[in-house]
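Example 3.2
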Amino acid sequence: MSDTVLEMKLRELPKAYMQEVYDFIDFLISRSKKTNHPKRIPGTLKGKIRMAPDFDDTPDCFKEYMP
């Protein structure tokens, strides 16, 4: 869509909706900026996170609820 067509459509719009269009344009701009994050690289945290040896064990306070 060309800028001229967009301007013509905006002129046809009732004045009451102009603020909504303005707010929606701001929303689209902010949404496009949020998606420009660096690409994630698998394995970058390898070796930095450790699980406790008893991670899968049921805590003593829950044993009475277990069958």
